[in-house]
Design brief:
The complex is a heterodimer of chains A (65) and B (256). By secondary structure, chain A is mostly beta strands. Helices cover 11% and strands 37% of the residues of chain A. A five-stranded mixed beta sheet of chain A has the order 2-1-5-3-4, with no helix packed on it. In chain B, α1 runs parallel beside α9, α3 packs across α4 and α4 runs parallel beside α5. The chains are: A mainly beta (65), B alpha/beta (256).
């Protein structure tokens, strides 16, 4: 299926958000996630099913003002 | 010292963490100014990048409280989701809420700001709203649950100082017990001192320090100005007057 990750469209076979993070090499990285603009807590990622056209955001701590 | 949501801090300076020449200079700016709160953000990260972890470790070494922001969000939904992601990443209920309403001035969208503040307060957040000095907006933010207000001095990154003294003074008078923080627009320590003289509790800076030729020195300059201005405020200043009044005694002057 085709999904969008951080603004870039890509193919994936990952059935869940957790599986997608593993597939993309995030491992144990300190990141937070959202799917289709809704926050998905880390504990929910293994249950968060992905569907064609989903928009996934993966963010981390950064400098800010 | 100011107390935000039952947490007393040891400094009147909140300092941003962006745009410094290097992480070492950022650390020096915090050390020399004694800033007690660091603002931070969340941004996209690629797999394997691990920049977030490195930044998080560096902030941890500063030994200050973090105040995550929702910078760049233009809608309520973006801001709320960003705040929720920030809460998980930074493990704090504090959020500097930005809902930007105009791309040129980066001024807050007052309508979206109130709506987002209400949603986040109901969700357990302690909201620090980046707002204008509009009194009615600030009343609505307090009704929405905000227990601190952060009006701008001038648009973000401009260094223009306090653009509406009347409005800022009016806010101080209407909210005597609420922590008020000037957020954005300051460029010089004298402007921070002025904010203190108006009775404000703190200022939030980033560009003024990070973009100075010597950021650490400028950070210390701001810290001293805050102290000076606050002392002046607490010392009950004289009333200004139009007519001159001699300070040296008139009685006993020679040649009279």
């Amino acid at each position: 299926m085709k999904i969008t990750v951080n603004g870039t469209t890509q193919e994936t076979a990952a059935p869940t958000l957790d599986a997608l993070l593993q597939e993309l090499g995030y491992g144990a990285a300190k990141v937070a996630t959202a799917v289709n603009e809704d926050f998905v807590p880390a504990a929910i990622r293994p249950e968060q099913r992905l569907n064609d056209g989903d928009r996934v955001e993966i963010v981390a701590p950064r400098q800010g003002g | 010292m100011p107390t935000y949501y039952e947490t007393e801090v040891t400094s009147r300076l909140m300092l941003g963490t962006a745009q410094y020449p290097s992480p070492a200079i950022l650390a020096q700016a915090f050390k020399r100014s004694g800033a007690g709160i660091a603002t931070v953000s969340v941004r996209r990260e690629a797999g394997g990048e691990r920049a977030g972890q490195a930044f998080w470790d560096m902030i941890g070494d500063l030994g200050v409280r973090v105040l995550p922001n929702t910078a760049g969000c233009h809608s309520v939904r973006e801001a709320v989701t960003t705040a929720q992601m920030a809460r998980e990443l930074f493990d704090t209920n504090w959020i500097k809420l930005e809902v930007i309403g105009h791309a040129d001035t980066l001024q807050p969208d007052p309508f979206g700001l109130v709506e987002a503040a209400r949603i986040l307060t109901d969700d357990g957040f302690q909201v620090f709203p980046y707002c204008t000095e509009d009194l009615v907006l600030c009343e609505r933010l307090v009704e929405a649950g905000c227990r601190v207000l952060m009006p701008w001095g001038a648009p973000i990154g401009t260094g223009l100082g306090l653009n509406n003294i009347y409005g800022l003074r009016s806010l101080r008078a209407h909210f005597p017990d609420l922590p008020l923080v000037i957020d954005a627009g300051l460029g010089l320590p004298s402007q921070a001192a002025h904010a203190m003289e108006l009775g404000y509790d703190a200022v939030l800076l980033n560009t003024a320090v990070a973009k100075a030729g010597d950021p650490a020195a400028m950070a210390e300059g701001f810290a001293r100005a805050l102290e000076a201005g606050r002392l002046g405020y607490e010392a009950d200043p004289m009333e200004p007057r139009d007519m001159a009044a001699p300070s040296t005694p008139v009685l006993g002057r020679a040649f009279t």
